[in-house]
Amino acid sequence: MLDQELRLVEVHSLLVTLPALAPPGAWRGGQYSAGLEVVTIPTIDGTTGGKVQITASDRTRAFPRPRLALGLPLGEPWRAFVGVAYIPPVEINRVSSHQGAAEAGLAWARGPLAIGLRGQLVYATSRSPVTEPDTRDTLRTIVAGADLSIGRDLALPFGTLTPWAGAGLARVDGRFRVLSDGALLTSRTTRGSLSGGVRLVMLRHVEAAAEVVAYPGRLVHPNLRVAWTGDLFGRQ
After folding, report:
1. What is the pLDDT of residues 175-234, one digit of tens each?
2. Strand-pair category, 184-202 with 206-215
3. d(Cα 207, Cα 198) in Å, to the nearest integer?
4. Contact 197, 214 (CB under 8 A)
5. CATH class of segment(s) 2-231
6. At a CB cut-off of 8 Å and minimum separation 6, what does 179 contact?
């Protein structure tokens, strides 16, 4: 039963990792992207021994996360960016998740092709009913990870479509505390991931992206992002 409980801690911790949701080299120096990510939650089996725990998918099938990215000035063919994401601790349907995340990336871009490395760091505290319907147990998660990806721009009559694929590693530290008796479960794992996505930029400013992230043997879920992309220097 302990293995099943630790599996649930790890799966819920993996849900708050910060997916790329953009191809490598997506932003040149001075470009910014301000938008909203939608993290989907697949059906999670809460069975632990003879008991069924309440899981995230029992409460909601998705949650939003505001994100901001800024391209840094580097000479061609290099591109770099930094990004942040944040969710305030607002309770909805007896569930709240206070999250802060940061990311940074470096890419080599030549013509339509780009190859990049990205790092992420996430800290999250989530409270929700898990062991009993009338309690609010706590999951504290720390994620540190990196991924390598490759993408290619495809010119379309109405914009630019960029598919990409990547692979990465994430170190996940999840600590779940039961409110009723103070019991603590700790899951520390390093998981590999595979990902693939597509980004569409239309009208020079409207950005939409979709990405599927798979942690083999643990979690597969798609994520979406819509954003407004601009340039701090007013370039078109």
Report:
1. 999 877 778 889 999 999 999 999 999 988 999 999 999 999 899 999 999 999 998 876
2. antiparallel
3. 11
4. no
5. mainly beta
6. 131, 135, 136, 137, 138
